[in-house]
Specification:
There is one protein chain. This protein is an alpha+beta fold. Helices cover 38% and strands 12% of the residues. The protein is built from six helices and two strands. Strands 1-2 form a two-stranded antiparallel sheet. α1 packs across α2 and α2 (45-56) crosses α3. The longest helix is centred in the first third of the chain and has 14 residues, at 28-41. The protein is elongated.
């Protein structure tokens, strides 16, 4: 194990990779205005950016406003979409024929079928819709 000549054992430790300064970082006064508007109105990043432009003449991008809000813990979390797909839990059903699924499909689509098949279907008066009925049976 080789020791650092100048710093000894302390010279072998990992140093922070954080930059010493950020020249493009937004000023503290603008950040405070963003926080103030958010606390007063509870607006999102787009409206806050618009208000900064209208009230103070400041052009602050929405993404920058979003980063300021995130940095200060003022973000609203995204709503999670409620997923309901019965086939996911269909394997857990104990009784037979308790879950049914019906699908309907319009088969009169000239662009998909082509002119020849479309005219054949219409001349024979075949049904326009196709149904599929599925039952979960164990």
């Amino acid at each position: 194990m080789v020791k650092d000549q100048k710093h000894g054992d302390e010279g072998l430790k990992d140093l922070s990779r954080r930059p010493h300064h950020q020249p493009k970082r937004i000023s503290q006064s603008i950040e405070e205005k963003v926080i103030e508007i958010r606390e007063k109105t509870n607006y999102g990043k787009r409206r806050i950016s618009y208000l900064l432009f209208k009230q103070y003449g400041l052009v602050v991008p929405e993404s920058t406003v979003g980063k300021i809000l995130r940095r200060n813990g003022m973000c609203k979390g995204k709503k999670r979409r409620k997923v309901f797909y019965p086939a996911f839990w269909s394997y857990e059903i104990k009784e037979p024929f308790t879950l049914a699924q019906v699908d309907t499909k319009d088969i009169y689509d000239k662009e998909t079928l082509g002119t020849r098949i479309y005219t054949h279907i219409t001349r024979l008066n075949l049904p326009r819709y196709q149904w599929r009925f599925l039952l979960v049976a164990k």
